[in-house]
Amino acid sequence: MTIDLKETAQGVGSWLDQMADGLEPGRFRFCSKGSLVPVRGKAGLMATCFAMRSAWQSGIWDKWQQDRKEACVRVIQSFQQKDGFFYDPWLNRKAGISLETIVNLLLGRVPINILYQQKKLNMRAETRQCIGDLFNVGEKSLSPAPIEYPDPLSFQKYIRTLSWTQPYSAGSHLSHLMCFLAVNKEYFPPTENCDFMISEILKLLSELYDEETGTWFLGKPENVFKINGAMKILSGLQWLGQKLDNPEKLIDFALAQPFQNDGCGMLNRLFVLQQAGKSAPEGYRYREIQKIASRALASVQEFRNSDGGFSFYKHRSQPSYYGAKVSKGLDVSDLHGTAMMTWAIGVSLDLLGENAPDGAENWHCHRA
Fold it and tell me: Cis peptide before 190, with omega less than 30 degrees from 0?
């Protein structure tokens, strides 16, 4: 199945126009029918983030009027607090605990205080998302990113008590820190202990590194979690500008995994191949990588709808986000699905390089 990149981008742009129609500039509906996300006031931060990201990744951002672009940036920046966190009161109030966390809690795999910690974990992730989306369009946050453990001892304790038997979760938290440290070092100097913290992170990663798979973990997690965890680590390392010492192992491991046709699993492996490939010898296993990228471009189209957008699930909009009900799960496109699939397209095109279809030059890869 061949993808028409120009028509796909135009479809995304038209759908985003529909999601913004009649709303305050910089605001977007989460989906056309069944949306439960507010579109005004101190709420709906993620909707603007996903809309802006989708537009930037598909090349539509450059065609938007300047006032719409400025409005999107203002909306996102308005959610940043004095402590550096981007905070959406509505999402914080509505967010719940995921089914996975509940199961792990009942099995005694996670402590009871995870119920309190989850709110803070969500806010860190949202802050990271806002910083990345602003950075993509050449903007930045209004104040430094939050560093919650500013002294060396508390910082060391924090990163080493993350649950590395669950590499996706632990890698996510560490990745946020790498992003925050990199942003503060570049845009908000001087940053006390920044270099020390970065060196401690890299030291920890060297201790967690598994030479057989090229991933980072403790215990015996399933391979899919090793890949997903590696995705998070690599998304942090790209902010620090760090290359891998032995990327071939990670590429080999990623290529050995079965193709996942769900959006998240597919995107995670694509991202791992893309980032590991930047450190690998030129042309390393490029035929197999390009085969995966071509298959992903075809798979992505299964999530596309007649309205021009994409849904998070096939024929179903994303019903919840951090446990908050964001839609009724109808057969319509949604902002999170569109942001994820346009990202997958951008990464796939990057992996294809000169063999990418016409129009690839207009697409971009989100800096996660």
Answer: yes
